Amino acid sequence: MKAFTLFALVGAAAADLTSTGASLLLNDVYYFVSPFSQGNPSNSSSFNIKSLPRAFGFTPVTVVAEPLPKSSLPSLFANWTSQDDVWQPAFLGAIFVAGLDTPCLTKESYDGTNKTQSIVAPLIGTAGSNIPSGPYFLDTITGALHQAYRLYPDYAGAFSESLLQKPDTTFQTLSAQVPASASLTIGVPSRLYSFSARSPEKPLAGVRVGVKDIYDLAGVKKSNGNRAWYAFYPPATSTAPSIQALLDAGAVVVGYQKPSQFANGETATADWVDYHSPFNPRGDGYNDPSSSSSGAGASIGSYEWLDIAVGSDTGGSIRGPSAVQGLFGNRPSHGLVGLDGVMPLSPTLDTAGFLTRDPYIWDEANKVLYGANYTSLVETAAGVTYPKTVYTVDFPTDDGAAAQMLNKFAEDLGAFLGAKATALNLTSAWAETGPVGVRNQTLDDVLGLTYATLITKEQTPLVRDPFYADYAGKLISVFFFPSYLCFSRLRKEKGPVALPLVSWETLTHELTSNLIAAHNGRLPFVNPVPLARWGWGDKQPASALDDARANKTLFMNWFNTEILPPSTPALNTSTSTSTCSSSLLIYVGSSGRASLRNRYPTTTTPTPPLGFSNGRLSVFSGAPDHVFPLGEVGSVSSVTNVTEMLPVTVDVMAARGCDGLIVRLAQDLVGAGILKVPLAGGTLAGGEVLMRRDVEEWF
């Protein structure tokens, strides 16, 4: 018995015990204590912290990394209160200030209210010069500082996993939970940490980012919106280069965000089986968030504490969520950034882009993500010469509130550019200038099958087929043959004996019946929409893929020559002298109509995405398409029985490669008062999100 006890103790001593952080409640605000030390702020033994509040050995403190006189501290902390949602006066129990020689042993008040008495100590020690200003939790045993993360409930159900970004920019799950109903908890670091880090090399320092759950992030699993995929595959060993570029620029990823399954378009709630669709915060809180970047749109529409979200757009997966949540969002010119480490829907059409409320962060993020392929015009000294031609496509002719808002924007845009908006009939333009041999056919006749064919014929061999094969199981190098085991047993019992003659049929039977498989040939569950689309694609002839690519190229060449040619004389026949693009094209994004998530589907099975629409213009041409929020209109909600507001948006297109022109236009229109920056909340002007699952007030 003693020997067993000793063995158990030895085994326990060898156990691998790792801290994943801790959760604390400070003045009714929930915090997460990072498990990673930032260094020791002081080596002074005269600094006594016994009088400070502690939990799990941690006490809240503040670091001021810039040398300041103590008289300047109250105004500094007053600014911090308005600049940061993590810091609060409760972190002023102890203040470490750079440049002080000795501690101030007498407590004084620096919060401007005389409510909090602080001990002030010099910021010194081996790592003192590398510790940024902001709130920290001090480990009273080791003397080390740990960053503070404020915890928020994901009441919109936008995230699929809460993540903690490690110092080496790999990831682990953030282990924390605040009181909330069936929702994750997201932790965000203090914005103060990034103030000194913002630089030309780190333009996104401290920018909080959500990432669509189809991008690889080193150290954690992704789901692609499928539970079986998440459970089966191991964590990624590297981060998608597109996301790594953001991390290298200082961005902080706080979580994975829900996509519709395998990035196929799905309707909430009818099509979402494996995961519950996120909640659109606008209006009554029960409208469809659109897809497939559903979590991205819902989060940016809901949470002021999140700055930007990375989505993907193949057929509208960024533009749709941006439109119904009233956000800025972009489908970029195709091919601006590589998509290694990203689940494909159709490499011929896939793009990576952003959803955001801030057109200024938008430009900075674009510069980082697209690199040399993106030309920012924000700081163009000579100004921007905008196109004098603006096309409107299928703008409303009625006098409803949304129609008035859309048409007023067209007029205001024309006046701002010194141009007049002109209605463009794409059907007539195609019939007059379309490619010889097909201009007598409609756009729907030529392109009606193109999108559905590309996404099914390209995704099935790249995603479905290897997933099915891996999940069902593969032949491995360890075989189990009963006949051979019997022969081995005879050798042990009787010595050398002749190898028994075993028929090939017997060996084949033993091989197949004893194959070690992952799931013994089973298939994983797949939601109805991708399953139906894949099935439709399987029924199309092999030649359909080549036909779809050819038709897509046919349209691309026509559109980029006849409708939105670049302004560079060497590349087009126009006489435009405008910056980059010879013209702009706008069409309706959303018109404030409700799309409720509590509706039963009208069809028994999903149908493939057939036909041609304005949303396919950028998809087939490769030209950029950006969503601008215009405002919102009211209608009586069937949920609340009162008038609720829903967004109205417009899509703005320019010549391929002119992405920077559109973002600069957004900023200029905000500056001119034609556009307003949307806020997070129930309306574009902010406000409480109705039907939210949890309410958390700042202290």
From TrEMBL:
The organism's place on the tree of life at top rank: Eukaryota
Gene3D superfamilies: Amidase signature (AS) domain (3.90.1300.10)
Swiss-Prot/TrEMBL keywords: Signal
All copies of domain Amidase, residue ranges: 198-358
Scytalone dehydratase-like protein Arp1 N-terminal domain: residues covered: 51-152
Signal peptide: 1-15
PANTHER family linked to this entry: AMIDASE 1
Designated name of the protein: Amidase 1
